[in-house]
Write a structure and sequence with these properties.
The protein is an alpha/beta fold. The chain contains 16 helices and 28 strands.
Amino acid sequence: MPRNMHDYETTRAAFRWAVPERFNFATDVVDRFARDSDGPALIWTNAQGLHETYRFSEISMLSRRCASALAARGIGKGDMVLVMTPRIPQWQIAMVACLRLGAVPIPCIEMLTAKDLAYRIDHAGVKGVICRGEHAGKFDHLLAGVTARLAIGGAPGFDDWDVALEAGDPDRPAADVMAEDPAILYYTSGSTGLPKGVLHASRALYSWRGSAEFWLDLGPGDIIWCTADVGWSKAGTSILFGPWSMGACSFFYDGPFDPIKRLRLLSQHHVTVYCAPATELFRVSDQDIAAYDLAALRHTVSAGETLNAAVAQKWRDRTGIPVLEAYGQTETLMTLLNYRCTEVRDGSMGLPLPGLDLDVIDESGRPLPPDTEGDIALRAPAPQLMLGYLKDQALTDECFLDSPDGRWFVTGDRGVRDADGYFYYRGRRDDVINSAGYRIGPTEVENALLEHPAVLECAVIGKPDRERGEIVKAFVVTRAVVADPAVLARDIQDHVKKVTAPYKYPREVEFISELPKTLTGKIQRKSLRDMERARLTEPESRSNDASAV
C-alpha cells in the first residue's frame, strides 16, 4: 500500500496547493529537518570506494558556511552562481548555500566545454562560479565580473573551497525569499539552436515536493537513488528538493554506469526507491538480479524517456516491483505520473499530479475528446510552471495559448488521453511523421524496435519521400556485429509489423555505431533529420551500412 496516497480520485479532488508567501528551501526545509528530527540527508560513495554520510544538521551548517563565503565575495539575493560539479556532496552544499542567500544557482555538468560555459556566463550574467579544481581551466578568460570563485581542491585564480568554508560564518542569517522570487536556472540541452535558460521561482522548489510525495512515495526512513546527473532538472526533483522536502535520504554515487555495480549498490546501501531512465533499466534488468539482495527496495520509477513495456515487464518479473513512469519537462518538472494506488497501463504517461490540470487540446485551446491526438497542455497558472525563458519574453509568450477554456502552457508534446484520463505520448510536434496521410509517432515505432533482441538502441525519424511525403526510417545500434545487414533489416521490419500497426514499420533501416545525443544523454532526432536532408543533395555520401527493404 502506498504511504502517501490511498485513492487517487479522492486525493486529487481534495488537494489544494498551499504555497507560502515566503519560501527559502535552505531554512524552511533543511534547517527545519535539522532542528526537528535531524535524520540522514545524504549517503555518498564513489567508484574508488570513498564513503561519506551527512545528516540534515551537517548540511545545514556547511551550507551556512558556504553561504557566508559566497556573501563575503559579493554574492547576494538575485545573483547568478554557476555550480559545475559531478555527483559529490559539495553539489548539495553549494546549491543550498545559494538558496540560503536568495542567489540563483545554475547547475551544470562537467562535460560542458569552455564555449558552453562562456555562453551561460554571458547570458545569465553570472557573478559566482563553483567547480572542481581540475576543471577550473575551462574558465580561463571567462571570469571578468565574476567575484566569487570557489574551487574544490583549489586552483589558480580560485579560492580553495575548504579554506573558504572554514572561514565562513555558521550563523549568517538567510535571505527573505518570496515565493515568486527567482530561485534556480536550468539550461536546456540545446538540441535546436542555443540553449534556453529556464528560470524557476521559489514556489517551484516548494511545489516539486508533490511528485516526491505522490509518485516517489517518499518519507522519513526512505533512501532514494536517482541516477540523474546534477545538471538535469530531474536531479532537482528527485535528488535534492523533492526527497529532502519529504525528510528522505538521497543516495549519491559518483562513478561510471555499470549494471552490475548498480545492483551491488542498491543492495549494499538498502535503497528503498530507485529512480532511473528507461535505458538504464533496460541494461540492469538484463543482469542476474536474483543474485543480489534487494529486500529493501519497494519502489521503482522512471522518467526522462519513454519506457518500453517489455523492459518494464522484465523488471517486474525479476524484482516483483512495477516501474511507475512519469512525464515532465524542464519548464514544468513532473506533471503526469503513475501511482502505486492506480492501475498501471502499458505505455501510459499516467494521470495528472494532484493540484495540476492537464489536457489534450486543439490549436484553438479547446480540450479534445478522448483518444484524439493533440497538444499536451498544462493549465496556467500552476506553481510548478517556470517564470519563463531568461531574457526571451517572445519565446516565453509562444508557449502560452489563451482560449475560452483558460490559459494553457503548451508543452510542444503530442499525445492522447483515454476515457479514464490516462495520457499517452505521441512525440514532439516536430517529430510526428506524416506518411501517406498517416500520422506516426516515432516513440511507438522505437518501442517496437527495442523489443527485437538484436536492437540495443534506436531512433526513428520521418525521411522525406517523393511518393509518400515521408517514410519511417529507423537508425539502429545493434548488440553485436551485423553479419548480413539486409537480412537483419528485413527481420526487424517484420518484427515491427507484428507488434504494432503494419503501416508504422520502418521502410528503411540503417545500422550505425552510435546515435547522436545531447550532453544529458537524450537522442537528437533533429540531427538525424538534418543528416538525411543533407544526403538528398549529396547522395554519394550515403553510408554503406544502410539497409533498406
